[in-house]
Recover the amino acids of this structure.
């Protein structure tokens, strides 16, 4: 088992095939504390769009290393103390910045548009 399966319990879509994706890059890592309201809201929004995501309680740099190793494109650092702003890092484009959560969701959905979103 080792570290290969670490964190899979938090993965959205791991048990619900309607949100699962065979494409490893179609995932997002949210860096947040387990009880973070903003992370819960963002996970819900991504799930509605069919974008698989998982939460990790890691530093931003550790989260980026994990995402890079797994081929995950987006890392979002969420903290309730920052209001509605999040830190979004696009590891493929090597860009990152602070923005409102809704804008970060929009950026992610532009790359991975919802298949049957009405």
């Amino acid at each position: 088992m080792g570290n290969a399966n670490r964190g899979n319990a938090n993965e959205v879509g791991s048990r619900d095939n309607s949100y699962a994706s065979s494409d490893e890059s179609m995932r997002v890592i949210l860096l947040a504390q387990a009880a973070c309201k903003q992370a819960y809201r963002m996970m819900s929004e991504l799930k509605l769009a069919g974008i698989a995501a998982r939460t990790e309680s890691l530093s931003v740099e550790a989260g980026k290393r994990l995402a890079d190793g797994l081929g995950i494109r987006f890392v979002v650092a969420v903290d309730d103390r920052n209001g509605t702003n999040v830190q979004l890092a696009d590891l493929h484009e090597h860009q990152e910045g602070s923005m409102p959560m809704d804008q970060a969701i929009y950026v992610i959905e532009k790359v991975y548009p919802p298949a049957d979103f009405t």
Residues 1-26 have pLDDT under 50 and may be disordered. The CA atoms of residues 34 and 57 lie 7 Å apart.
